[in-house]
Amino acid sequence: MPKRNYNVFFNTHTVSGIIISVALYVIFFAGAFSLFREEIQIWEEGRFISHVKREHIDYDEILRNLDAKYDLLGRDMQLNFGGKSDAIYVYLGPSKDSLASEASKTPHYFYTDIITKDTKTYEEQYSLGEFLYRLHFLQQIPSIGVYLAGLISLFFLFAIITGTIVHWKKIGSNFFTFNPKSILKKLWTDAHTALGIIGLPFQFVFAVTGAYFATSVLVLIPANFLYNNNQTKLIEDLRPERKTFEWIKPSDKEVPSFNTFAKQTASEWDDFHLTRAFIKNYKGVNMKYTIIGDISDKERFVGSGNITYDAYSGRIESITNPREPNYVQDVQRTVGRLHFADFGGSFIKIIYFILALITCFVILTGVLIWVEARNKKSMQLEQRMFTAKIGHIYLAICLSMLPATALSFLFVKFGIGNFLNKQTAIYSFYFLSWFAFAIFYRCKRDNYYTNKSSLLLGAIFGFLIPISNGLVSGNWIWKTYADKQYEILTVDVLWLLIASLALLFYFKVKPSIKEKSSFNKTPISYTNTKENKKQNTLTNKKYHLPMRIKISLLWIFIAIGFIFHHVYGLANVYFQESILLDDATGETPFWAHQWRILLEGLALTFGLLSLEITKKWFVLSSFIWAIILGIFNLYHVITAVIYEPSNISEIFILILLVVASILLIKALNEWRKDSTNGDESIPS
């Protein structure tokens, strides 16, 4: 290859990889755990599951209960049966009947238990497995998260192709000459190449299928031209089960048994497993049942079949044989199976899990190669410091995901029952703990320490996860194995293996590894980077406010702001609007005390202690908590503007809290820098 072409491919591979590295690491790390999304939800709930076959579920009783609660007349419904859990997903469309009540015209989506027939909203049923699954395609970023994940997948595909071209001639030699005792740059390069080629097919498949899922809206653009912008017809051809039927009138006959049709469909083909169902125009004269399932992937990799019945006559209106090829549906199902490891059982999921973690390591080694390569004496100090800073930030964000995830498993097991909205609780705890770990490691500015401590914390928390399951739910490993509750057992064993490997790597990583780094040969002195450091002249100002008092006042201002926010948030009560919460008993629930302590209580505590304590640990703790509060306040302003634009006074207070948080973070950062440089007395 000409040298110019090689340089072009090398630089594009490096730049594209560095740009997406953090987001790509998050996608793969979260994706590895999302492979066991359903198992994690079952583990979290702690209840033994019944393992009832989907065709033996009493759907008729479920529909009767839902009809009594939601008035199903004229509605379209979707039922997702799941594979292992006792909870099935239900979506109710608005009623098409012109005489239906306003309540019946409201759509609903929730989960219903096939044993107890109880229903839970999406927020109530939310689990850590669902959170990690959504994090896998960055859905927590409003509006653009999914498309951003698709763009990252395209960049990843580009990085795979250019990386293969660049390393093609060195793949064999690097694989067989891998030496963990080499200098770090060569060590990372060999590991990056060797492990990258091992997972190359997996990474390529994941990049292509991930880009397809996250940018599928773009795939439909050329198809619209073929259908003359008739999107209804397009969707009906792509997803025939979603075809809608015009409402005619209610039927005076008894609703046909869905159970009968479910059993009939399951027995239509050998080894056919039900997965979903659609009910159109419930209780209408033209009511339809569409029941969908798959045959075993051992018989046919993609074998999706469905039958649509006219409910009252029992006539089959359409049928798709899962043993016959269907190009449109088979292509979509193939992409899904390849991406989510939805074939081959738990063995394939474990292989995918291992390959996903290997890809995470490949991403990190790529960043470390770049960091080591750019730390040269020939480069300016500012360039070297920028490179080192990027390395610290990237590794802090990525490596802190392990302890944050393990700690979140403990949180959902011990504390989730104290929260009405599980989704908000999981969001808050995971992101705040992840952010706290990342900020701490960034401030340490030591990649060796970040690596070692994240492995140790991940191992400690990981070993506690199966213990917590036994203590809280009584599901000890030997008990779940004896009772054949393999879903719960899978999560416990998975974390035992992760913790064991993390502990093994912790002991394998020796301090001598730092001697191989280029930063050991050409170190950066952070204490003397500014030779002519500006002297603090604030004390010469006539109206200067001492910094410690300023910080204390800002903490108190934020605490008072939270109190005012609570008061303004209740403004609607003054105008005769009821805000009685569900399950209210007249007593303040435990979660309310938690929020009061976390917001007003800690702010007042830090404000008081800032007048007395000047130790480094206190300064760092104050700084981290101020940043967390700042992000929380900013998030609160955005949600208030979106969902409560008329509550102007509340939004005004929240904006003041954001301003106060910015000033507080700035002041605490100055204090932190002074304490880091050896002066624990706050500037005044």
Folded structure, characterized:
- The protein is α+β, with helices and mostly antiparallel strands.
- The chain has 3 domains: 3-46 and 131-212 and 343-521, no CATH class; 54-107 and 245-335, no CATH class; 541-676, no CATH class.
- The chain has 26 helices and 8 strands.
- It has helices spanning 3-34, 37-45, 59-70, 122-125, 128-136, 145-167, 171-176, 184-198, 200-214, 216-226, 231-238, 258-266, 327-340, 345-373, 381-399, 401-414, 422-444, 447-473, 477-482, 486-508, 518-521, 547-569, 571-574, 590-609, 616-643, 648-676, and strands spanning 77-80, 87-92, 108-113, 119-121, 272-280, 288-295, 304-310, 316-320.
- The protein has an 8-stranded antiparallel sheet with strand order 4-3-2-1-5-6-7-8, sandwiched between helices.
- A hairpin with an 8-residue loop joins strand 6 (288-295) and strand 7 (304-310).
- It is globular and about 85 Å long.
- The N and C termini lie far apart (63 Å).
- Residues 530-543 and 680-684 have low confidence and may be disordered.
For the record, the count of structural domains works out to 3
The first-to-last residue Cα distance is 63 Å
Q: Rounded to an integer, what's the Rg over CA atoms?
A: 29 Å
Broad structural category: alpha+beta
Range of strand content: 5-15%
Strand order of the largest sheet: 4-3-2-1-5-6-7-8
What is the chains' assembly state? single chain
Question: Helix tally?
Answer: 26
What average pLDDT do the residues reach?
Answer: 82
Could you give the count of β-strands? 8
- State the share of residues found in helices, binned by percent: 55-70%
Q: pLDDT below 50 for ≥5 consecutive residues: which ranges?
A: 530-543, 680-684
Largest beta-sheet details: 8 strands, antiparallel
The coarse silhouette is: globular
